[in-house]
Each structure stands twice: as C-alpha cells, then as structure tokens.
Amino acid sequence: MPPSEPIRTAAVVTHGRVETIGDGLERLQAVAEHNGVTLLFPSDEREKHGLPPAADEVATADLVIVLGGDGTMLRTLDRFVDSGIPVFGVNYGRVGFLTSVSAAELENGVERAFTGDYRLLELPTLEVEADGQRRAAINDIVLISSTHGRVVELNWQVGGEDYGNVACDGMVCSTAIGSTAYNLSNGGPVLVWGIDVMSITFVAPHTLAARPLVVPRGQSLLATNVTADIPLSVLVDGAPLTELGFEERAEVTFGEKRGLLALLPEVTFVRRFREIFPS
Asked: What CATH code is carried by the domain that includes residue 240?
C-alpha cells in the first residue's frame, strides 16, 4: 500500500528504558523541526522524558515514530491497532525485525518517512476469547503451562473438527508477522508478510505426530485444558490475559482489526529475514 501525503504530525513512543535510546529523542526532535513536523507525546512519554504536561492529541497523528526494539514496536502496534495510523520503527533494541532503520540511520530514515517515502504493510490480527475476556494480537497468542516444567494436555479443534489430545508445554498461534518469533523458535513455519493465515505450533509436544498447522481465514481454533491439576496461561503478544483451569477453553479466531506498519521501500521480508537469520 502506498502512503498518502508528507507527514505533518507524528506521535512518539520510546523504549521502556530511557537510557537505551541515549540522545535519540533529541536527534528525532531536530529532524522534525527541520522538516516542519510537530511531534506529539502520549502522557506516559511526557512523564518518562520529563517533558511538561500537554494535551497532545496523539490519535490525530499522521504517523507514529518508535525508538525501540520489537517489544516496543509490538506494544505500539497494539496501542494503535485499527486507528489507521502507521507505525515506523528506529531500532534501539536487540533484533528490530519490525523496524525500518538502525539507530545510526535515524536522521536519514525518519526524514524519508516524513516526506512520505515509505510503503504500508497491513497487519492482520488474531483474537482470543477466554474466561469471558477477548483481546486482539498482532504477533501471537500463546497457551502455555502455568507451572514451569509441567506438561499440560490440550484438546484442540480446528474448523469444528477434533484433532485429539496432545501432551505438551503449550501451543503458539501466530500471524505471518509473528511467525518469526516464538513460533519459529518452536519449529513452526516462516510465513511471508502479507499472508492472511494463522500458524498453530506446539511447544515441546510429547509426540512426533503433533506437527505445525497453517489455517486459512474463516477457521478458528478451540483449545481445551484437559489437565486436572495444572492451569493454562493465556498470553496475548506476550502480555498475560488469564488462566484456564480444568476443562476451560480458549477460542482463537481471525480478527477484523488491522495494524499498519510503515517500512522504507527497500525493507522487504526477504531482506529483513536474511539480515536477522543469515545463512
């Protein structure tokens, strides 16, 4: 998706540890001033950086600039999901898979973003309903044993068909953008950005028959905890949602909400993958 117009206002979200970004915020402010862009700060960012209180309307921003790593990017994408505001990342983290430029490239990368030299990647979401709660995820939904080192038994059904029970540490339901995270580390498939599917991958299954499954939009996963004495934790993009006891279940479906990731034109899936996972 091509962008629309040059940026006039940009919201700012930074790494949770202020010291991590060093002089990054000052550098960003200099680029914004040079390009006539007004920076908007959520109240928590103003408090974090010692800025005077102000009623910045971040919901009206043309773009969100993130100074952080993939964790900060995910939290920001979740925060602005379905708002229509794209998120552009400068990597101040370890991996930065979702960011467009490194910290050293801040000035050039952000200036290009301010002039509209970026493309938009629409990010599908997954939604989980569990224990009367419902939440959307950009990256993944994880169902995991709440007791470290203890195996749980899960019954799983996809599209209304019963796949039986699996003894495991848990399962990961990921979007394409999340397929290179916890899903990949558990042997799940890598999904190219833009594919609107869900990957279901087991964590340490106690069987050779539990293979990853890729599910198309329109089908849902119903997972039931059939372990009598071990609760099942439900995590949404890494954040705890609830715990499920014996015979309690979670349903994971395709969400209607969408996130928007802003990327420089040369930042493609293949290039990013080869940078992060060199052969």
From this structure: 2.60.200.30
Q: What angle do CA 147, 151, 155 make, to 5 degrees?
A: 115
The DSSP call for residue 138 is: S
pLDDT in tens, 123-175: 999 999 999 999 999 999 999 999 988 999 999 999 999 999 999 999 999 99
DSSP state of 273: H
Residues 108 and 162 in one domain: no
pLDDT in tens, 191-230: 999 899 999 999 999 998 899 999 999 999 999 999 999 9
Instruction: Give the 3-state secondary structure of residue 190.
Output: coil
The number of C-alpha atoms within 13 Å of 206 and in the hemisphere containing its C-beta is 12
pTM over 0.85: yes
Which is catalytic among the residues 56, 70, 78, 237?
70
Contact predicate 176/197, CB 8 Å? yes
Specify if 3 maps to a domain: no
How far is Cα 18 from Cα 147, in angstroms, rounded to an integer? 33
Q: What is the DSSP string of 26-47?
A: HHHHHHHHHTTPEEE--HHHHH
What is the count of structural domains for the chain? 2
Q: Contact at 8 Å (CB) between 77 and 259?
A: yes
Shortest CA distance to 126 belongs to which of 161, 70, 171?
A: 171
Please say if 70 is a catalytic residue. yes
